[in-house]
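Protocol step 4 of 6: structure prediction from sequence.
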Amino acid sequence: MNVSRSCYYEWLESPKTNREKENNELIEILKVLIKKGSGSYGTRRLKNKLAEQDMVQSPTYWSVNEPGWLVV
């Protein structure tokens, strides 16, 4: 990557966006749900558990392309 060191560190220390904060909160909730389900919860069951907590997300929110995006 052709990024100067100063720009990288400025980006690294920049405040988190609202979306990043929401993502981090959601990931922590998902980690708890997965541990409660002994790691056997799939996306449908996780979505239903989130809906029970009034935390329904759009289908595009669930489309994560990177394998291992959620490490418990």
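Step 5 (inspection) to follow. DSSP finds three helices and no strands in the chain.
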